[in-house]
Amino acid sequence: MLRMTNAVCEEVNRRRMEVTGENPISHVHVKDFTQIPVIDVADLIAGNSVRLEVAERIGEACRESGFFYIVGHGVDSNLTHRLHDLSRQFFALEVESKMRIAMPLAGRAWRGYFRVGDELTSGIPDQKEGLYFGRELRSDDPLVQASTPCTVLICSPLSLQNCVK
Prior knowledge:
Layout: E1 2-3, H1 6-20, E2 35-36, E3 38-40, H2 42-46, H3 51-64, E4 69-71, H4 77-91, H5 95-98, E5 112-114, E6 120-121, E7 124-125, E8 130-132, H6 142-145
Parallel strand pairs: 3-4
Antiparallel strand pairs: 1-2, 5-8, 6-7
């Protein structure tokens, strides 16, 4: 597990209280935790017989802490390091630049940038900013034609390059 400091936990709760005016966990049974669960998904990806156990660990992590860290995914470490570096560059940009690829501009694709508070969970503004992205597929792509889960036909493609002058 990855260690999470009490200061981080307290800051998350403090920010939620600022937005809602109430204790964020007063109505939810959540275990106190100081570690982020780390889940190896290699068996899940491989379709091994223990894949249901992996799915149960993911479900438990979602219920207990609300998030988790995945290992064993098979994504090349050079790619994950590059994504990390590009993410830092993107989120260091001025808000005006990031808003050039805001989610409302993407139509039904559900892609693009969102600011802190733009998304809601159970009617409460989330305390995160983010960027949803994915492959841009044409209507004749075999994945779209086969209605493959997690593929969306991009009607108004967005590109990170739109943020960079």
